[in-house]
Amino acid sequence: MSKGGKSQWDFGELFSPEQTRKVLSVGELTGKVRALLEKQIGSIWVSGEITNLRAQSSGHMYFTLKDAAAQLSCVLFRGTSGIQRELMTDGKKVLLQGEVTVYEARGQYQLIVQAVELQGVGALQIAFEKLKQKLAAAGLFAPERKRPLPRYPRRIGLVTSPTGAAIRDVLHVIERRNPGLEIILVPCRVQGDGAAGEIARAIGTLNEFAAADEANHLDLILITRGGGSLEDLWAFNEEAVAQAIFESQVPVVSAVGHEIDFTIADFVADVRAATPSAAAEIITEDVFASRTFIAQAPGYLRQLARRKLLRETENFEALAARLARLHPRRQLNEFLQRLDDHQASLLRGLRAGVRSRRLMLENVAGRFSRARPSQVLKARKEALRQLERRLNVLGPEQVLARGYSITTDAKTGAVLRDAAKVKAGQKLKTRLAKGEIKSAAE
Fold it and tell me: What are the residue ranges of helices labelled H in 254-284?
């Protein structure tokens, strides 16, 4: 503190009245930035890759557009018309037209999308997709309306340029595979302004020709051209051509461009071929295959005839064998053969019976001879002697004869086996092989 009571540091003296500050709120600053962006940049085109796409239930779509250097927040509002929203997917590279602005609630600058094109494809591809969806919804691509091609066409209508490579390819294949096929050419341009109208009128002309007289019958119409860019093939993506094909009373084959090329005409036509040559092969397929069949037919017919003859021969031989088996003489011979078999069986049975009875008598005679009383008595005596000898061998006399003796209690006759149990003065009787000895124990 100074002596005058003032602070050592007087902050008021640091700022003069001329140095007043202008302080903005966040909202004010953001509004200024928004106004500056909208004024200085405004509507622009920007390219990049879609990522983090979110489709809200409200119908709005939010996503980020990015490239290798930066990213930009984008919003596509529900009310924005003329945009194919199904093209909006993560990873899709697009060109966007929109207004650069600031979403003030988050202080984030963003692009409000007003138009979308696929990057590298542009307006033609967008138009193609739009027309494709429109015609599909109208039923022009419905599989159930597709008509089969005739197997053996005699006359076809051809709609193409008379100077292009496609007509040369078609004529070359037809000349090689079905040279008898009649072709009515209605030449037209297949590229450039007005080409679509010429193609549609050519299809109509051929239908009028076929309907005018029964003798003018057409089996199918082929519209074709060679390959090219999307711009080159665009005449076949016009709605007029699609309607002419749809309204044609004659089946239509479309063969436009190369295998990878697809046009609206391909989707509407009854049959789509990958190339002009492929279309000519499809048209002549059955006729060409029948040439091989016809060439092989004589040999096939001979083979069928041989099989039929062999089968009938086998049937005839089987019938003849069956008739031979049913002949009366054959049946009589079989009966006599069965009679001989029965007779032989009876003789074998008699012989077997006689042998059986003879063996039975011999067995009975043997039993009677073995049952005589003298023989039985003799056998019984011999058996008795055998038992007697066995008893003698096991009897005590034989033991005594070998020098043994038996000592018993003279009073009770009990045999004594343990000397420790004999009492002094006990009367004893000892039996020898011959005679007995009486004694008393000491």
Answer: 264-268, 276-283
**pTM of the predicted structure, to 2 decimals:** 0.47
Does residue 8 register a pLDDT over 70? Answer: no
| Helix H or strand E encompassing 247 | helix 239-247
Q: How many CB atoms lie within 10 A of CB 237?
A: 22
- What gap in Å lies between CA 249 and CA 204, rounded to an integer? 9
d(CA 17, CA 291): 109
Question: How far lies 213's CA from each of 77, 287, 340, in Å?
Answer: 58, 25, 89
| Cα 218 to Cα 250: distance, rounded to the nearest angstrom | 7
Distance (Å, whole) CA 139 – CA 141: 5
Instruction: Say which residue, 322 or 156, is predicted with more confidence.
Output: 156
> Taking residues 7-24, what's their average pLDDT?
59
> Tell me: the pLDDT tens digits for 177-193?
999 999 999 999 999 99
The 3-state DSSP composition of the chain as helix, strand, coil percent (nearest 5) reads 50, 20, 30
Question: HSE-up of 281 (CA within 13 Å, CB side)?
Answer: 7
Question: 190: which DSSP letter?
Answer: -
